[in-house]
histidine kinase
Amino acid sequence: MTKLKTAIEIRQLKKIHSIAGIGYWVYNYSTKNFWWSEVTHNILGYQPGGVTPSRETLKKHIHPEDLVFFEESLKQMQLQAMEIEFRFYKNGELRLGKITGEVYEKEDIIEEVLFQDITDIKIKEFEIAKAWNKALEAENLKNAFLANMSHELRTPLNSIIGFSELLETGNISENIPRYASSIKDSGLQLLKIIEDLLKVSMLESRTAKPVKRNFNLPNMMLEVKDLTNRLLKNSNKEHLNLNFQSTSSHLVIKSDQNKILGILKNLLHNAIKFTKEGTISCTYQIKNQAIEFSVSDTGKGIPIECQTSVFQRFRQADTNGLNNFGGTGLGLYISRLEIELLGGKIWIASEEKVGTTVKFSIPNVIDHELIRDLDPNPEIYNWENYTVLIAEDQFTNYKILEAYLQPTNVNIIWAKTGREAISASLQNPEINLILMDINMPHTNGLEATKLIKETRPNLTIIAQTAYALEGDREKSLKAGCSEHLSKPFNKTDLLLAMSKYLP
């Protein structure tokens, strides 16, 4: 019975070792006899019984650089239990092994060792550690972004609320223009943050699409230069030298002008932000059918280890916040996505304390079929013989539009809902143009536009709405609107759009 129990236990132990992939060997120091289990044969790449176990055979499998360590560990095992990891070969493939063993001295000196191939375990541990580090990095990045975003949002909000309270409560008539200017600047700062977040959402979801058309490149560069001069003034860095390329005024390319304009503005904003002294340069050159832009500065530079990561979202070279440069860490990420959307690429060359050059190229921009768009931009409009219906449910938005239009002497009718807009357009045939808000109670602006167009198909309707996502413009035009202005828009944009239909 005892022999049967022992046989069963041995069989179960062999099964456990086989399932766990744990080999076993016994070495008798007195007789020099060496025995390997079946799993040990398999770990070393042999069929059971396919080789005679010996120290020499075992050593042939140990990596040469680990052999001395392996032999010394076996000697130390005679003094105390040992657990070591080492490299070995199985059928020519390098693997990682682990032995756990000790030496017993009774009638003979016996070495008993458990032997395991831990290669796959280590790989999984590495992958888990890598995934954990990645998750930890993402968590830290998220926390840093939220903390930074809180700062970026609260700063302009503090200015808007503070100056608004001053305007509301005090006798400060002499300071009104200055306070109003601060409120406007802070509002634009908030708008930039919101627009960046919306851009990221659209670009990552692949819903954004480029709008390519022919445009005059030198004219666009003049606009970029004007923007840059304003950035220098607002940053109190008018002492920096500005180097802009000047070329033929007849160079026309075909691409998405608004996206290129935004990319250049963002790169120049960064150049100004990180430059205290020296020069900001912006140049371009045509290479075959592509255009390559270059923005250079003599600023603080970017550490080499950050020059790739700055094109990822929420990444900034100044991660500790000690230099107080601000920003959301989205600018270069958005630029990269928009450049890739146009089929181009962006790259960077930078040296700390020397400066940075960012270049990007966009292919297939040469198209000789020129589009000559009229660009009426008179400084003064006189529309005293015209009537405009403003369909807007928000009183403050209506008052802004009324203030914008007041210098033009145009006659204004106000409709607070979509139904009122429909009724007013039918009852007042003198209405020449409608500024139609989209999100209104009862009947929204798109539905109102469709109904108005059924009876007055030639009446000009301009959508003015806070809906600014990809496809919203197309919805407005499909409903019958002639133009689509995304809020917030400025006075110049509004008057320019209206001037196309009110001579």
About this structure: Residues 319-324, 368-378 have pLDDT under 50 and may be disordered.
